[in-house]
Amino acid sequence: MRKKILIVAKTYPTRSKKYTELVCTAGVDAEGNWYRIYPIPTKTLKDYEGLKKYTWIDAEISKDSSDSRPESYKINISNMNTLDFLDTKNSWKYRKDVVLKSKIYDNLEEIISLANDKNELSLCLFKPRKFLNIRFESKEIKEFTDEEKKEFKNANANLFEHNSSCEVEFNVMPQLPYSIKLEFEDINGKKSKMNILDWEISQLYLNLYRSNNEKETKEKIKNKIESLIEKDLYLCLGTMKQMHGWTSNPFTIIGLFYPPKDIGYTSSLF
Questions:
Q1: pTM score > 0.90 for this model?
Q2: For the chain, domain boundaries
């Protein structure tokens, strides 16, 4: 089926032997229904950098039979069309008119049950009651071996050999030395600490680290996230495929939606 989807979240690339590097790209339709669309490999699509968040796309998608999560779809990137970009005018009104059509959750136990017990949800918009802390946790960076680099190149070439709309490049995205985690509590006071996988925050870390020391980089990232919390911050949450359905909390933060506070906002869609 063809579907018009507004891109709302893009994660920083993770490495996959099957699809080389992937970003989790998620968005909503005009009714606020969520879709996880992949594979969208990084640095292979012409104009991939033009696929910005809050851009409408029109694409042929089909339910992914290898992924039981209800919102997971495969996308045919060969006939994907990039449409309008929604700007930030009028206090993000045009973005809010679409994104806030989605159901907003505030109860962690509810969404975990919907994911693990009922398999009815793996993407959602979440509004914490309170933000508590921002933490950096060291992680091991595993470099590609020569054999893995060869597999990476071959997989990338095979994936796109029949697709004239793509350019094949073989650069590997650098990995962050830290997991950036946000601590918060829900409407019932239940606390959680989740990874922030948002593309923009991860890329900002790498950009800052090139010209700052580790301490300065962490401080600037923390200041950036705190500035978003001062706005009307919502979390775009998504479950990881390998954790969906069985872990105590399968969700991570795949995106941040942070319009300015506007108590007088009224959607034009209602």
A1: no
A2: 2-140+173-257
